[in-house]
Design goal:
By secondary structure, this protein is of the alpha+beta class. It folds into four domains: about 230 residues, Pnp Oxidase, Chain A, CATH 2.30.110; about 100 residues, Beta Barrel (Elongation Factor Tu (Ef-tu), domain 3); about 110 residues, 3-Layer(aba) Sandwich (Rossmann fold), CATH 3.40.50.80; about 80 residues, Beta-grasp domain (Ubiquitin-like (UB roll), Roll), CATH 3.10.20.30. About 20% of the residues lie in helices and about 30% in strands. It contains 14 helices and 33 strands. The strands form eight sheets. Strands 5, 6, 7, 10, 11, 14 and 15 form a seven-stranded antiparallel β-sheet that branches. Strand 22, helix 9 and strand 23 form a beta-alpha-beta unit. Helix 9 packs parallel to helix 10. GO terms for molecular function: 2 iron, 2 sulfur cluster binding; metal ion binding; oxidoreductase activity. InterPro entries: 2Fe-2S_ferredoxin-like_sf, 2Fe-2S_ferredoxin-type, 2Fe2S_fd_BS, Beta-grasp_dom_sf, Cbr1-like_FAD-bd_dom, DmmA-like_N, FAD-bd_FR_type, FNR_nucleotide-bd. Keywords: 2Fe-2S, Flavoprotein, FMN, Iron, Iron-sulfur, Metal-binding, Oxidoreductase. It comes from Cupriavidus pauculus. Pfam families: DmmA-like_N, FAD_binding_6, Fer2, Pyridox_ox_2.
Length: about 625
């Protein structure tokens, strides 16, 4: 399924304004078409090609205020990732992975009226971070008094080159943590932390070097900071070309290269210092540093660029307008591990004959990585990518694919899975059912389609699931409907639900889970369509107050698209009500019909915000601050 991915120029910003408008050049919030989807974590380097891959276990919509627990840090206004909330995480493992990989952090603090940001070597031990330096350090003297401090860690993953000069940006992973440092006063505690820091990446080295004396330990300042709050964020994917804010589809006519230049941290071979004793050989902690730290070696960088040439070896219609493609590796290494819920990115050609990468769920993959299956729904009213694959790509055709991060993984803590699918959303559910069966984990599948001719992989699901498959034909007489509250109520601990389908299905699952007390952290979903207008929607007259414009908007056209059509710039991203980028203050008019999954109840009432990509008015008028 092709997915819309949105991004930020620059890096992590937790304390954001409740609404954002385009600002000076180079400081815009941007969005982009890509196959890489939302932020995911915690991190696990599993790609055989050396690329980072991630898993995300408990993110569903925006971060809400929480307390610290064993798996996550608290979230308040200062640490919440408000915009692109789905790209943020307060998961401890996700945050720890970035801190540990960054090696240094930037400590931000204020002395009187002057702010400072000091880069320094930082290491983590549990829920604390430590740093040290000379007793004459102004920064250390100040922060050791227990003042409020913010520490940022950033990993750069690539340059992003747009067809538009002002839309060039970076891909990154970043963390912001907050706390109040305190001095590590006891020499023994300082010594213990120095040993921990040194042996983390260089085991055995502490016993080889000269130990610090008491005088040396007294000559430094060491501080530690408990992570009171923290959040992680990442941007990934190609440029934002094609959005209306940048001129829309016309930008594709700019005949210049656009895309990503990936960056990677590479650990080169160790270089010995002068005058080493002749008996000293290069130790294992030097030769094995890259592996231990999670970095790449020159050999790994040169071995593979993450693109895989494949041949279409089979095609099969698996439902009305749904075609399965088997993509067999044509040359080079096998595909990396593609866990259930994963995707591949594949190049398509649109109706205007421009190329565009689309992302499709992997339905099945060979154990040895020599082939994978995807399924594509032919969309007659689309932009042509799916029609290109259906009509022009035949058996024997050579293609090139990439394997991005898994956006919709199974949580390893799942003891029983409730798999829910609607329409073409069945594709990741098939893969999940197959993986759960192989792992011996119990599961059940609930699949809804408008007629069994429109359902895909029904025979495959019957073979995998047996009696655990429940089909709902909504087109039949007295069409069957899922009774979601009954489906989710009274489940034992360790039960997780996974839903893929249209917004209405996902909303129904989320609402039912909340109604019966099913844990929100155990509700996972992936959306493939924007919410459709309601049959009760009426035309609305929208006043764009700051622009002094007024427009009558018909159902089926969003307020966002209406604003863009008359030249009113509105930062936006997903157009599905998930990212919050288009959240705008409502100044008057009728009551708002909220249809997003981003804003909190407080933001809707106290701040009177609305995501104009999906909201509507219950009456005839609406006034917004645009």
């Amino acid at each position: 399924m092709g997915k819309l991915d949105r991004s930020l120029y620059g890096v992590h910003s937790s304390v954001a304004q409740s609404r954002v408008i385009p600002s000076e050049l180079g400081k815009r919030w941007l969005g982009d078409w890509t196959g890489r989807g939302a932020w995911i974590g915690p991190f696990a380097r599993t790609n055989r090609a050396g690329a980072w891959q991630y898993q995300w276990h408990a993110v569903s919509g925006p971060q809400k205020e929480t307390d610290m627990n064993d798996t996550s840090y608290p979230v308040t206004d200062r640490s919440r990732v408000r915009l692109f909330g789905g790209r943020g995480s307060n998961d401890k493992q996700a945050i720890h992975e970035i801190i540990d990989a960054a090696l240094y952090g930037v400590v931000s603090y204020q002395i009187e009226d002057q702010p400072f940001a000091t880069p320094t070597m930082v290491w983590r031990h549990g829920d604390y971070v430590y740093w040290h330096g000379s007793a004459g350090s102004r920064m250390l003297k100040h922060v050791s008094q227990g003042v409020n401090v913010c520490v940022n860690f950033t990993l750069l993953d690539g340059y992003v080159l747009s067809r538009l000069a002002s839309a060039h940006t970076l891909n990154y992973r970043s963390v912001m943590i907050f706390g109040r440092p305190e001095a590590v006063a006891e020499p023994a505690a300082r010594r213990e932390q120095l040993e921990y820091f040194l042996t983390r990446y260089f085991p055995g080295r502490w016993d080889e070097v000269r130990q610090p004396t008491e005088a040396e330990l007294h000559s430094i300042i060491m501080v530690r900071m408990r992570i009171e709050e923290g959040s992680a964020k990442r941007r990934a994917g190609p440029p934002a070309d094609g959005l209306a804010i940048f001129g829309g589809e016309a930008l594709y006519e700019q005949q210049c290269w656009a895309g990503e230049i990936p960056l990677a941290t590479v650990a080169l071979p160790g270089r010995p210092a002068k005058r080493l004793h002749e008996s000293v050989a290069t130790p294992d902690y030097v030769t094995g540093f890259a592996r231990r730290a999670g970095y790449r070696t020159p050999a790994e960088v040169n071995a593979h660029d993450g693109r895989y040439p494949v041949t279409v070896s089979e095609t099969e219609m698996v439902g009305r307008d749904i075609k399965r493609f088997r993509l067999a590796v044509a040359a080079g290494p096998a595909l990396p591990t593609i866990a259930a819920g994963g995707h591949v990115r594949i190049g398509t050609v649109l109706d205007d004959r421009t190329r565009e990468a689309r992302q499709y769920t992997v339905v099945d993959v060979a154990p040895d990585g020599n082939w994978c299956d995807i399924a594509v729904l032919r969309e007659a009213a689309g932009r042509g990518g799916s029609r290109y694959l259906h009509d022009e790509v035949e058996v024997g055709r050579m293609l090139e694919i990439e394997v991005p991060e898994n956006e919709f993984p199974l949580d390893p803590a799942t003891r029983h899975a409730i798999l829910i699918a609607g329409g073409i959303g069945v594709t990741p559910i098939v893969a999940m059912a197959r993986a759960l069966r192989r792992a011996g984990t119990s599961f059940e599948v609930h699949y809804s389609a408008r007629g069994m001719d429109d359902a895909a992989f029904v025979d495959t699901l019957r073979e995998i699931c047996g009696d655990a498959l429940h089909l709902y034909d909504t087109a039949a007489d007295h069409g069957a409907r899922m009774r979601l509250p009954e489906l989710l109520a009274g489940r034992p601990a360790g039960t997780h639900s996974y839903t893929c389908g249209p917004a209405a299905l996902i909303d129904a699952v989320v609402d039912a889970a909340a109604a019966v007390g099913f844990p929100a952290a155990c509700v996972h979903h992936e959306l493939f369509k924007a919410p459709a207008p309601l049959s009760s929607d009426k035309p609305v007259t929208v006043s764009f107050v700051r622009s002094r414009r007024e427009l009558r908007v018909e159902p089926g056209t969003s307020i966002l698209d209406a604003a863009l059509s008359i030249g009113i710039p509105v930062p936006h991203s997903c157009k599905r009500g998930e990212c919050g980028l288009c959240a705008t203050k409502v100044l008057g008019g009728s009551k708002v019909s909220y249809r997003d999954r981003f804003l909190t109840d407080a933001q809707r009432s106290n701040e009177a915000l609305a995501c104009v990509c999906v909201c509507w008015a219950e009456g005839e008028s609406l006034a917004v601050d645009l």
